[in-house]
């Protein structure tokens, strides 16, 4: 069985290749715009370039890692799905968003469109709806350890984050086990945490007090813009945080830990890695 991984030079893509190798997979191909950056079998592949779609020839299972180009994801993913069908790909694993079908996060829209495209294609597929990556907090954690302050709009909402490596292991587990395929998984960390709990853990590891600034969505967006984030991206981050206050990034199904066969990375581990 030949498995291919899109976005193979990205953070999740590289971890997924490593997880597949750790589980003994040998017939794996990395798909990337710059395949020369990869070791092992690799092919040039660009979500937006039809000339690269022949890279899907001979692929049995395609791990479609969502594009990093927010705003372009829906058409890019549709391109890949259509090309996969044309080239006889047997099964697609897609990294969607936690509770995409009912999420009010702006980020959900393109994932919902991709899920619909997969359903319409008639291709066999599995939806792995990923929650928040612990690494999303890396810069905030490092900054808080230095400044003694952290800000956000998530209020008392619990965020069930897990490390990217946890999600990568889940992709590998499903890709290598047909019995796990054809389902929808809500993937998240085993235990959620609030912004206050995140601050407390940073304080414990950094050895200094960390104050929390609870902001409204518009205030948080403005703060992110002052930190150099482009307006549209700041809006998406602020919206995600505000929706987290309403539970958008929490799930207690434990699908993720069951798939990987171990507990997910806890808050202490997320903070430790960020400060490492």
TrEMBL record:
It holds the Pfam family NAD_binding_10. Residues 7-178 form the NAD(P)-binding domain. It comes from the Bacteria. InterPro entries: NAD(P)-bd_dom, NAD(P)-bd_dom_sf, NmrA-type_oxidoreductase. Signal peptide: none annotated. This is NAD(P)H-binding protein. The lineage of its organism: Bacteria, Pseudomonadati, Pseudomonadota, Alphaproteobacteria, Rhodobacterales.
């Amino acid at each position: 069985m030949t498995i291919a991984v899109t976005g193979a030079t990205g953070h999740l893509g590289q971890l997924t290749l490593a997880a597949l190798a750790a589980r003994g997979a040998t017939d794996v191909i990395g798909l990337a715009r710059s395949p020369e950056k990869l070791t092992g079998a690799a092919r040039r592949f660009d979500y937006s370039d039809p000339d690269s779609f022949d890279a899907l020839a001979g692929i049995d299972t395609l791990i479609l890692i969502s594009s990093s180009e927010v705003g372009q994801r829906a058409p890019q993913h549709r391109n890949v799905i259509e090309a996969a069908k044309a080239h006889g790909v047997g099964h697609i694993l897609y990294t969607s968003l936690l509770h995409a079908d009912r999420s009010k996060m702006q980020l959900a829209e393109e994932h919902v469109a991709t899920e619909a495209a997969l359903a319409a294609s008639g291709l066999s597929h599995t939806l792995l709806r990923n929650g928040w990556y612990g690494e999303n907090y890396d810069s905030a954690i490092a900054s808080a350890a230095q400044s003694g302050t952290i800000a956000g709009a998530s209020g008392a909402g619990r965020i069930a984050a897990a490390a990217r490596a946890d999600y990568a292991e889940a992709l590998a587990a499903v890709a290598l086990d047909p019995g796990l395929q054809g389902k929808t998984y809500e993937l998240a960390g085993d235990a959620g945490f609030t912004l206050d709990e995140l601050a407390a853990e940073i304080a414990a590891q950094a050895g200094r007090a960390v104050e929390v600034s609870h902001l409204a969505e518009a205030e948080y967006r403005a703060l992110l813009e002052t930190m150099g984030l482009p307006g549209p991206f700041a809006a998406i981050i602020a919206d995600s945080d505000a929706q987290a206050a309403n539970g958008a990034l929490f799930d207690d199904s434990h699908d993720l830990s069951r798939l990987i066969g171990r507990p997910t990375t806890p808050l202490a581990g997320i903070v430790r890695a960020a400060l490492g």
